[in-house]
Amino acid sequence: MVSATETVNRPAVVPPGRAVELPGRGTTFIREVAGPPGAPTVVLLHGLSATGGLNWIWAFEPLGGRYRVVAIDHRGHGRGIPTRRFRLSDCADDVAALAGVLGVDTLIPVGYSMGGPIAQLLFHRHRALVRGMVLCATSRNFRGNARESGMWSLLPFMTVGMRTAPLAARRALMSRMMERRLPEFAAREWVLDELSRNDPAVMAEAAGALGRFSSHEWIGDVDVPTAVVVTQRDGMVAPHRQLRLAESIPGARVFRVDGDHSVCVTGPRVFIPALQSAVASVTALTPRPV
């Protein structure tokens, strides 16, 4: 359930959410749009330090007209399962467990940034569940030159330091940092509320997990229709890394977006059409569920 505060402040384009118990795993949080009867299920997987509602704020309505849409808050993010040890594989297994609870036999994961590795792992660990993939602003690994490697190697030490501060203080600090960087729009207070629910220490752990992730050895085994949305002015995940991911997946189609890493929120006019085309390209090549 959502709070009364969110009911007042939540943007109309974002559906209300609800808690879902995943047997043996914990209680997570999802937002969903029912879509047309019998429509394919699209599961939206958000990026680092975002939430399902925030990352996909502009995607619910456009996708909901053609698909059943489900967005999950990952562990340690938003209202997702609380955790003290973040692992991308746990997030992938959470999605598989959620599918079982919702009675979904097959789905199309749509992963943005950190959500990309989670989608890849979902395929790798639960092949029968995945009928196609859409990977946005993401890569098959997140280490590269000396500067990038050095940045990722420092994150585990940041985790230790951040855990020593009280949770309320950590959340307040993140809210102040993000408040200066968010664009001015009507739902600003709701955005800050979404961000304040993240545990900054888990964010650092998640970043460390991204730095250790690599699908290099098995990404070529992907045998489902796949689309890769490339953010061409991305300073977080270099476009050439995104293109290399697409080249590693047999038959993957590329959809280019003239935007940076935050374009999913700040540039819906360019991002959403590319996202819609990418999802449509995947569903066109997959058999409809029985």
The name of the CATH superfamily reads Alpha/Beta hydrolase fold, catalytic domain
Give the overall shape.
globular
CATH fold naming = Rossmann fold
Second rung of CATH, namely the architecture: 3-Layer(aba) Sandwich
Task: Just give the CATH class.
Answer: Alpha Beta
Q: Tell me the number of helical segments per DSSP (H or I, 4 or more residues long).
A: 12
SSE class: alpha/beta
Q: What is the average of the pLDDT values?
A: 87
**Strand segment tally:** 8
Helix content: 40-55%
Neighbour order of strands in the largest sheet:
1-2-4-3-5-6-7-8
Rg, alpha carbons = 18 Å
Poorly predicted runs of 5 or more residues: none
Q: What series of H and E elements makes up the topology?
A: HEEEHHEHEHEHHHHEHEHH
Based on the structure, what is the oligomeric state of the protein chains? single chain
- Sheet of most strands: 8 strands, mixed
Kindly estimate the percentage of residues that lie in beta strands according to DSSP.
Answer: 15-25%
End-to-end distance: 31 Å
Quickly count the domains: 1
